[in-house]
Amino acid sequence: MLLNRPLLATCAIFAATGAYAEDTLPATLKGHAYLPALSLVAPPKDAPQDLWISGKFTGAARNVQPLSVMGNTGNSYGAHDTGIAMPFIGQPLQGMSGFAMNRDADGNWLVLTDNGFGSKVNSPDAMLFFHRMKIDFETGTVAVNETVFLHDPDQKIPFRIANEATDTRYLTGADFDPESIQLVDGEIWIGEEFGPYLIHVAMDGRVLGVIETKLDGEVLTGPDTASVRVPAEAGKDFRVQRSGGYEGMALQPESALLWAMLEKPLLVEGGETEGDYLRVMTFDTQAKAWTGESYKFTLSQGATAIGDFNFIDATRALVIERDNGEGDLANACAEGAQDTSACYPIPAKVKNIVLIDTQNPAEDGTLRRIAHIDLLDIQDPDGVAREGMTPAEGNFTFPFFTIEDVARVDETHIMVANDNNLPFSGGRVPGVAANNEFILLSVPELLNAQ
Prior knowledge:
Layout: E1 23-25, E2 28-35, E3 40-41, E4 53-54, E5 69-72, E6 81-86, E7 88-89, E8 91-92, E9 96-99, E10 109-113, E11 129-136, E12 141-149, E13 178-184, E14 187-192, E15 197-201, E16 207-215, E17 218-220, E18 246-251, E19 257-262, E20 277-284, E21 289-298, E22 305-311, E23 316-322, E24 351-357, E25 368-374, E26 402-408, E27 413-419, E28 436-442, H1 444-448
Parallel strand pairs: 1-25
Antiparallel strand pairs: 2-28, 3-8, 4-7, 5-6, 9-10, 10-11, 11-12, 13-14, 14-15, 15-16, 16-17, 18-19, 19-20, 20-21, 22-23, 23-24, 24-25, 26-27, 27-28
């Protein structure tokens, strides 16, 4: 998500991480589809009028004039206007933040949208939802066959929500930050960042329960958890970093176990991190309880966060790891450049899909990295990439700030997509808002690696 985008200090905690002696395996582009950046959906008919215009609180004061303020990437990323203005009439489909491993009965992919505009404060009018999508790589189009809006009519959520006074109680980005989704026995499980919580949801979007996170018997909280009050001391009053809750949550095949992975390292007293690794906890969806088992995933040098996490078989899984950069290195700004209007000050350098082994962790619980592919070096011998979405030179790249979706398609292919942070991110062309892109990659070597 976009919450701490200007804060790049987290990069330093991984600077001392050594390089990994793992193979970088090839990837070939076999399909390329996209949703245009400005793709909107109408709220349900019974939604409060407030939710028909979204993005009213992204500036210093309430702004109810649609399309009156241009989106911008922010100073750290070149201060590029993105060509798309807010507030929006309707709800943006932007921010694909998770693929479910299992498709629905009609073959639709279940795809989750992020919390809205990046924080609790600026997203009270951004509705939360997931979609049933058909991605057509032949035509390069994405069909949104249904959008399911999250709501809490049975008052299962244990804290006050933005639409508390309504009957339907539609959820917004002021309530949760949904980042990962799985389909288990006809019901939805969502991993979110603010709590961090697991949200149990019916297929119609109705909340069935909210589960707090436990590690070694201790409840984990962050600065945006409803129970945390300011002033609060990092590492003592909360251990989860802001924007550091669940970014990936994988469903282990042939089991009812969810593997929930935090986006950033946990904090210890004094505000430092406990190490250069991310915690992974397992949750039994049948017992509706944490198992007490936990593991560690170590990022490679230069990576600052993960984007998604999905199993490909009973023991191996894919993890997206990324840095905070966006844009091709070929379009990087010259050192000390004052004019950044046509370049990227922080170009993308680390955007990987890592295959890991969950069956044989090290003695300290660290999960073994098997191999990875580099999303900044994708072969495209058949010219599959869509017009206007190719780098200026070299192989095809996927150089987006937040790449948050990966899933196995079949024995040789995976699908990857980005969260375009509408209207605050570019990545392809300076000054142009990123689309929601979906790429089909042929990666037989990766999927067969042991």
